[in-house]
Known about the structure:
By secondary structure, the chain is an alpha+beta fold. The chain is globular. Helices cover 32% and strands 28% of the residues. The protein has one domain: Nuclear Transport Factor 2, Chain: A (Roll), CATH 3.10.450. The chain starts with a helix and ends with a strand. The strands form 2 sheets. Strands 2, 3, 4, 7 and 8 form a 5-stranded antiparallel β-sheet that branches. A hairpin with a 5-residue loop joins strand 5 (146-149) and strand 6.
Amino acid sequence: MRDLRWVIAGLVVGTTLLSGCSQKVEANNTLPSTSTSPTTASLPPVGPADFPVPDEARTKDAAGAEAFLRYFIDLINRQRAVPAGQPLRDLGPQCQECLRIARNYDDAAAAGNRYVGGELTLNDVPAPVMSGAKVLISFGVRREAVSLLDSSGTAIEARPDPAPNLGCGIDLVWSPTDESWLVTGLSIG
């Protein structure tokens, strides 16, 4: 008889607990919001508005430095086709070779000239050598044949043969203001 009382008591308690589950209960309005909140601040714009330095090239590490090198070679190729030198000056304000290339591009544009060919393609990029906020990267590039043409299409200058593997180097320094690498030295060939 005593066991029967425990069974009945257990059924009563179980039924009471289960009936609470069938009642409609409003959701708690103190739960955290499901909206996403920004975890990092936006990076300041660097590079041309239509060809900005990508985020992966804006990290202060070897991978970011290498990504910046790849971006900068693409930028040189892009600006040769325009031609316009200001983006090279912006990213290499202390780089004499960058300033020389920028000046050549600006002079060509002012004279109504244009470059044909000359694309640079990275061949070999060993690991960057880092020293604090500075980086040195030695690399190889292939330079395609290039000509500078006047407005009538006549060649003013030409390097008719491609250069398959020019020894090159780039020196970079981290800019905390821009949150990006800047070029302090460049050697192509």
